[in-house]
Design goal:
Blueprint lengths: L11 H14 L6 E5 L4 H15 L10 E5 L16 H14 L3 H7 L1 H8 L4 H7 L9 H8 L17
Parallel strand pairs: 1-2
Helix pairs in contact: 1-2, 4-5, 5-6
Amino acid sequence: SHKPRWNLFGDSDDSEQVFNTVKQRLHDAPLFWLGISSGSKLPIEAVGKWDERHENGDLSAPRFVATACVCPGYNLETCFLGFQFPYTQICLSSVRSKFLLENEAVLRPFNTEAYDKAVGSADLQSLLTHVAPFAGYPSQKEYFAAENPVLFASLITTIGRAHV
């Protein structure tokens, strides 16, 4: 059966597929990756993993000329705890409507308990802990271990390859 792969902060496997498609079409194009605010999670996590693969001899791992993140540094285990009014409710409402409710037909049948807990979450941090199954992980512990960008920032070597 088909399992959904939905990750609030993006999926590095999806990004690798996009990278490979772009490189097939624009083989010699220099590629750069910019992440802004919560969008910095994916470049940090993905490039850290890919640079480590490359360092270990996997030459198929995506490579960028440079990667930049504006306002990065998200620890996924605590990133939403500092949200204050009105951002907490605005962002929670947006995540519920755009990601959960619009995808209910796929997410609820896959894991009803996780879906109901996520939709009923009082804040974004608790919502994030409940959606781990939709990103392919059995628990929040495994999700944070595999996706938390603070665990992968030290693996990035791309920065040293930038040519100005």
